[in-house]
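Hi there, hope your week has been kind to you so far. Thanks so much in advance, here it is.
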Amino acid sequence: MGVRIEFVEIGNFRKLLSTRIGISEKQTIFVGANNSGKTSAMVALRRFLVGRERANFSLNDFTLSHWPTLSKMGNAWEKAHSTNTELPSPAWENVLPFLDVWLWVEDDEVRYVQKILPTLDWEGGRLGVRLRLEPSDSRKLQEEYLKARADAAAIKNINEGIGDRLEGAFGLSTADLTINLWPQNLPEFLQRRLRQFFVVRSYILDPVKLADPEHGQAKPQALDPRAAPIDGDPLNGLVRIDEISAQRGFSQDARPTDGDEDNLGSVDATTRKLTDQLRRYYKRHLDPYHKPQEQDLRALQAIEIAQKAFDKRLREGFATALNEMETLGYPGITNPRLSISTRLRPVDGLNHDTAVQYVIPLVEDASSFDMRLPEESNGLGYQNLISMVFRLMSYRDAWMRVGKAHSNGATLEAFTPPLHLVLVEEPEAYLHTQVQQAFIRRAYDLLRNNDKLRDDTRLRTQLVVSTHSSHIAHECEFASLRYFRRLPTKAGKIPISCVVNLTNVFGEETETKRFVTRYLKVTHCDLFFADAAIFIEGPAERILVPHFVRNQDEFKDLAESYVTWLEIGGSHAHRLRDLVEKLGLTTLVITDLDATTADGASAVPARGAGQKTRNATMKTWLPGTDDLDELLAKSAAEKVKEYPGESLSVRVAYQSPVNITFKSASSEALANTFEDALVYENLDLFTGFDGGGLGAKFRAAIASSTTLPDLAAELTKQLKVGGKAELALELLELSDARALKPPTYIQEGLEWLTQRLRQDQTELGLPVAARGVSQAKAA
């Protein structure tokens, strides 16, 4: 029942060239790597929905790939003007930023949506409205641009004459003396004058013409050239919109003013301290002077008594001074007399820096007392949390018209929009990780904590949050996550993004969905914010593979990239396949060969023995076979799965044959796990290993074995005992961090990922080295 936003489509706005974003019925969380478009989406919602005044927009809100089109359009106007031909009609249609809002409205709520009904026989369901930034008068804009260009050309001619006379002076040429005058082109003209010529207009969309996105890109419908804009704001009375922006100004000296600041949804209001929020909340909901009710009369009486008593004391105190002034005389028929009268207002009690205080109870020598500190004396994190929570409550109460905000004698339904949309940008600022999780768990409930909201489906709340915090994403259901994915571009093109709805990422695979959801809950991974992922087999790899990355020069770019590490195991990595493919996340899977006999028993790897692998990743994902001989014969290229058109690559790295010399005999070594592969390629190190535990057993195995098969059998025996993590920790203590060489299969895998990240970042228009490494906790 009721009204809700089903999805929005954003076009030609910054990185979002053509993107659909589904809005969940309750809360929606924007996640994604840096520079993926999350902020662009929040700014678009703010520009079009919260503050639609043209002053909020700038040329920078146009997608960069459209700037050359704007420049060509301006050149065409100039060419026509210079030849005295008719100016071409401006071709704005494909470059104008817009926001399409698609609503789901029940047929009994028609009174709210009369302005945007596509037909008179509408019977409920989907409705759409486009909010588009466009020229208010295209012809006027053309004329002003051409005039500005003509003025610039005239001044340029004068300057060139001066340049000719000065050529050679100070060793400068005419080219050195050339001045680039504004505007050089149409984009430069719009950088200064866009706000003068552009407005936001609204248009009705046709649900019948709505098309599904293709390859992640939305297919917004084209407007009929004859379509007329809607008068006024089509969402007025339908949706109440409030926001908490990322810039909340806790360190600012935000002085209160005496103005009437009822607009709690304004951008300015979101930059005030808690003191100012309390004062504005008081004025709207609690002020006894506004529509006084019975419970206000006693307070008003007390204020009146206090005011009269204070006036009397002031008159007594100033009597001598005032009488002395009166003896000076004053020309005129009637001499005015000075009188002092005060005006006590309850809100004045909040108009100072210590109106909000934090109370700290202290106990000293069996006596207790309270210490009080002003608001700014507390940490920014606590201020941020309290401020955000209070804003959410204020927005809710303003929507519900709590207290004095409710018109006397009027019903709630008569003035309350049926939908409340709240935008929160980066709530994690200054907050401890546990507080971040607590906030996102409670935010929606706070917005619904009103007796009229709990069970009323006609009044809906939709919360939209953008975040860079894996801790916030960790607390949310997959169905609420919207992943912003950076799309690859051709050389010289501007990078753009699309949005992936994770609601049905696993389809009907309920068992897989349950496993992945629970796994991500306990690993706290950064999967939704990383540039790449590395899945690893067990604790030893989890400890040592990052060690290899940090200490090998060839992996410098990888060490400086934003990579998330997941200890998932070869038997489970394939369960993340759907998620990896949906996110388009470059992934390296480091796993074990796990050789078995034909009847499924564990075995030392051997060629031509009819062995299989029990590793589900290799069987069902890549390379896509369980035959051990085939796996050992695979080339490096055959271990990579490319996704044409998706800019997605996944590579598997497992133990491959290596030639080593053992006891003066050269032969092929076939490792089965990370640990025995480590021994084969670091024989000298383990021969002189002075540690204990599994490392000491490896040293003894090397000493007692006479052939490589003997060593393989002994290593397999010792690995069944365990102690892998302890071995890895001992190896970290080696005085020379580079003394331990990574096994060949891991070396090759990391080299591939390094090269692939360089390629990805080039295609995405990013610097080769992104910001620091992100490592997820091991399970």
Q: What stands out?
A: The mean pLDDT is 84. The chain has 22 helices and 22 strands.
